[in-house]
Amino acid sequence: MLVGPAMLRVDLRQDLAHLAAIKTWPVGGAAVFRGELLAPLIALSLGAALPILLGSALDDRMMLEAGAPAALRARFALSALLVASTLVLAHLVIHNGIAVTFPAWVRLRPGGGAGGVVPRRGLMGRAAAPRRRLRLFVECAAATELFGRILDRADLQDVAIVE
Q1: How far from 66 is each of 56, 57, 70, 71, 98, CA to CA, in Å?
Q2: What percent of the chain shows pLDDT beyond 70?
Q3: What distances in angstroms separate CA 46 from CA 39, 43, 69, 72, 109, one per listed residue?
Q4: Which pTM value belongs to this model?
Q5: I want to staple 84 with a disulfide (CB 3.0 to 4.6 A). Which of 20, 48, 154, 155 is the partner?
Q6: In the chain, domain spans
Q7: How far apart are CA 76 and CA 127, in angstroms?
């Protein structure tokens, strides 16, 4: 959840090498930016779902009380999955925003694999509040609009491709 967005680079950080083709698409930069985030967001969210579901199903004393009902375990798993997905989205927006804003700073070549982290007790505190998740999601949506405008104005000569 924390390392995966940096390692899984199947988004604009890799696709900026094809900026000339991307600029010919009949969609705006914000739609391209959001579309490029979807694949790694889905992959990393699904990668985090397995440990979250297993942890909430098998945990007896670490985060939940012993003998916790299934409804409590399901709410915990859903909340943890929403927190994980929101944090992954925020990381992806930041990484891709930097790549779009400063394309010469990013080395454009394929990356490695994905990673995941099981949520811990401290992570489920303040970050799990629905208001905070919603606010972070709204901030990510606003940032995608901003970075989409930057992508619309991107110059093909700004992108340096490393072979």
Answers
A1: 12, 12, 12, 14, 45
A2: 71
A3: 11, 5, 24, 21, 24
A4: 0.72
A5: 48
A6: 4-158
A7: 13
